[in-house]
Specification:
nucleic acid binding; about 290 residues; hydrolase; 3 domains; alpha+beta; single chain; four-stranded antiparallel sheet; Nucleotidyltransferase, domain 5
Length: about 290
């Protein structure tokens, strides 16, 4: 800071600037916004943020009634409420620079695509980029997405849900009709756990009538159905990350689950260079949305 630097106040007086630095604001939503070239003015007892500067850096501020909502690239970041003639952001803390942050002055191509792709890992994003499905991007070594970290934290063991899905047989009928009509192939085997919804007489009769061998895993051994268990966990992680990023309640879980599944069908898995969509449809998917 140049000696004698000051800022002009509303009453036409000047206040001395003692330093310039970088501050990370952590919103209650978990998002972190880094402010650069922040001036330290001890004589001002409020931490002031310029709304016009935020908008120049790509953020969007929407004022409604006594609330302000802040977003970037269409994704929710944080909010604030009117207090004493100003809008006070709802912040949880200041955090150090080692944490991942949303930078207001740098257009991070990785962050732009990470959220729309339901928070898939950056390795998959790199493969999509090499397949020319998304633009090339670079990431800072060691950077992490806050929403991804939170969403992948498992809960303590808990009782299974009391309410069961009552329509697995109907879903199997729909899936069987689509597969056999679109791919001209027959379903020969079906593997499931030992859930009660797969043990009904109607379910067994349907499999027998259509020559489907129903394989059931041993009791109390979810690892025997590892592919399905891992798929469920992956979908759950993506859904939690999406809801956390958007600040949405659990009421949106169904829509988030469908979106996550649609995205996973359009990205390659570990063992294949083609996406499930391309294997099924015969052409590369479009991620232009």
């Amino acid at each position: 800071v140049a000696r004698g630097s000051t800022v002009l106040l509303g009453n036409r007086s000047h206040a001395s600037v003692h330093g310039v630095g970088t501050v990370d604001m952590k919103f209650t939503s978990g998002k972190i916004v880094q402010l650069k070239n922040v001036q330290h003015v001890p004589s001002i007892d409020r931490n002031l943020v310029s709304g016009s500067r935020l908008t120049r850096d790509g953020f969007k501020l929407v004022f409604e009634s006594n609330k302000v909502v802040m977003s970037k690239h269409g994704y929710f970041i944080g909010k604030g409420y009117e207090c004493g003639g100003l809008f006070r952001f709802s912040l949880s803390d200041f955090c150090n620079k080692s944490m991942n942050h949303i930078c207001g002055s740098v257009d991070d191509e990785a962050n732009v695509w990470h959220s729309p792709l339901c928070h898939i890992n950056f390795g998959l994003m790199s493969r999509l980029s090499s397949m020319c499905l998304i633009p090339k991007f670079s990431i800072v070594k060691g950077s992490k997405c806050h929403s991804c970290v939170q969403s992948k934290q498992p809960r303590k063991p808990h009782k299974s849900a009391e309410e069961r899905n009552l329509a697995p047989l109907e879903l199997l009928k729909i899936y069987k009709a689509e597969v056999e009509n679109q791919l001209d192939r027959k379903i020969k085997r079906l593997r499931s756990d030992r859930g009660g919804e797969f043990f009904s007489n109607e379910f067994d009769l349907f499999c027998v009538e259509h020559g489907i061998i129903h394989e059931r895993t041993p009791p109390y051994s979810p690892e025997s159905n590892g592919i399905a268990e891992r798929k469920n966990r992956t979908l759950t992680d993506l859904v939690n990350a999406m809801l956390d990023t958007a600040g949405l309640p659990k009421a949106w879980l169904g829509e988030a689950l469908l979106t996550s599944n649609q995205v996973l069908n359009r990205v390659p898995n570990r063992n294949k260079d083609k996406t499930p969509y391309e294997i099924w449809i015969g052409r590369k998917p479009s991620l232009s949305y």
